[in-house]
Design brief:
The protein has eight helices and seven strands. It starts with a helix and ends with a helix. The protein is about 35% helix and about 15% strand. It has about 260 residues and is an alpha/beta fold. A seven-stranded mixed β-sheet has the order 3-2-1-4-5-7-6. The chain has one domain: Vaccinia Virus protein VP39 (Rossmann fold, 3-Layer(aba) Sandwich). Bound molecules: S-adenosylmethionine (SAM). The site of S-adenosylmethionine (SAM) has 21 residues, from helix 3.
Length: about 260
């Protein structure tokens, strides 16, 4: 008679049972997160509990100096080439790595995050006349004018509906470029409760951004391959013209019902 652990091992070899186990895990995680409240409560909880469990950065293992070495090296050249004078970094998280970038010229920096305590901490520790931090919900708050919006490591924690709202928010903004995280491999994007995690690939359904202008590699060994991918607002607006959910979110944003 097979024991419980033998049965579990045998089931683990059957693809359908494996995916069922994965779905059950996701369902439990989504339920746990949804019970924490709305986006502000969820991410404030993550901040207070150090949910992403990294010792160096409260924003998680993707925000360490080691992880961000390539991005820190490539960002100044990209910004210089695109003529970026004002950069919106939202979410800015705990600003663990951005301050270590060797910029070539003067850059005005606006950091935004949904977690009040994080913004206060960043303001105390890192603000300068050209570097300010503010409370900002990228899902619904009007975005400040900037040349480039760096939206790193955040859509991976948002539900499909919230991602569509973020895209709509970008489309109604005055920002020319969006530089954001997109994973390389995907068997298909799946939905989550905001606050959980999914390896978003923006080029494919249900987002359908299409190919980016360019990409900066943004991962290290031991983590899933991904990039910071660049789109310009005009091209994205054309590609989203028939995207039902993004158009719906745009209507809600302009009616103030989001
Ligand atoms: C994984 S951290 C990434 C931080 C930073 N971009 C980086 O690369 O180090 C995710 C951040 O997103 C913030 N966040 C989540 N939802 C947000 C929203 N709707 N508006 C603004 N910030 C949000 C969280 O508070 C958290 O600081």
């Amino acid at each position: 008679m097979p024991t419980g652990s033998k049965i579990r091992r045998l089931l683990g070899k059957i693809p359908f049972a494996k995916s069922l186990k994965e779905r059950l895990k996701r369902y439990r995680e989504n339920r746990r997160i949804a019970q924490l409240g709305g986006a502000k409560e969820v991410f404030t909880h993550h901040y207070q509990q150090n949910e992403w469990g990294d010792e160096e950065s409260i924003s998680g293992p993707g925000s360490t100096l080691e992880y961000t070495a390539n991005l820190r090296e490539k960002l100044p050249e990209l910004c210089e080439r695109l003529g970026v004078r004002t950069l919106l970094d939202a979410p800015c998280g705990d600003f663990n790595w951005f301050g270590e970038i060797a910029w070539r010229g003067e850059l005005s920096y606006i950091g935004g995050d949904i977690v009040t305590a994080l913004v206060q901490r960043n303001t105390q520790r890192h603000s300068t006349p050209r570097r300010t931090f503010r409370e900002l919900d990228i899902i619904g708050d009007p975005l400040p004018a900037a040349d480039l919006w760096m939206l790193r490591d955040c859509l991976i924690h948002l539900s499909h509906a919230d991602i569509f709202a973020v895209v709509a928010n970008f489309l109604r903004s005055d920002i020319k470029y969006l530089l954001t995280t997109s994973h390389h491999a995907s068997d298909g994007n799946f939905d989550i409760a905001t606050g959980s995690f999914h390896p978003v690939r923006l080029q494919i359904a249900p987002y359908n951004f299409g190919e980016p202008l360019e990409e900066i590699t943004d991962w290290i060994e031991g983590f899933p391959p991904r990039s910071m991918a660049l789109w310009d607002r005009q091209t994205l607006a054309k590609r989203m013209a028939n995207h039902k959910q993004v158009q719906y979110e745009l209507t809600k944003l302009s009616a103030g019902t989001r």
